[in-house]
Amino acid sequence: MTLLPVLGVPMQGNAVGGLDALLSMVQMPGGVPVGTLAIGSHGAKNAALLAIRILANSRPELRQKLREYHTGMAKQIENEPLL
Q1: Cα–Cα distances in angstroms (integers) from residue 4 to residues 35, 73, 80, in the given order
Q2: Please, are residues 22 and 36 in contact by the beta-carbon 8 Å criterion?
Q3: What is the C-alpha to C-alpha distance for residues 15 and 1, in angstroms, rounded to an integer?
Q4: Contact 53, 66 (CB under 8 A)
Q5: d(C-alpha 82, C-alpha 12), whole Å
Q6: Per-residue model confidence as pLDDT tens digits over 24-42
Q7: Cβ-contact 38, 46 below 8 angstroms
Q8: Cα(44)–Cα(17) distance, rounded to whole angstroms?
Q9: Angstrom distance (rounded) from CA 64 to CA 56
């Protein structure tokens, strides 16, 4: 129905923990592409980051904000204590 990229995030919420939603996205027929991410909140965060990466290909201001975000993530990881 659309020529735009479709990003799917299967949601948890039933007895099978979102597996049914995941399977419905990854089993789309040929010609109906859906970029499917992880189940739940981690998938939602990655879907947002993937959408920004797609848009950043033609929007330099988003590309710069994405660089800044990744720099901040790297600094946060560097400051994490080792177990």
Answers
A1: 11, 29, 38
A2: yes
A3: 31
A4: yes
A5: 31
A6: 999 999 999 999 999 999 9
A7: yes
A8: 15
A9: 8
- Lookup result for tokens 């994405």: 66
Going through 1-83 in order, the beta strands assigned E by DSSP cover: 7-8, 35-36
| Amino acid present at 5 | P
Number of C-beta neighbours around residue 43 at 10 A:
21
Helix (H) or strand (E) holding 72: helix 60-78
Q: pLDDT at residue 64 above 90?
A: yes
Contact (CB, 8 A) for 8 and 36:
yes
pLDDT of residue 46: 94
Q: pLDDT category, 14, cuts 50, 70, 90?
A: confident
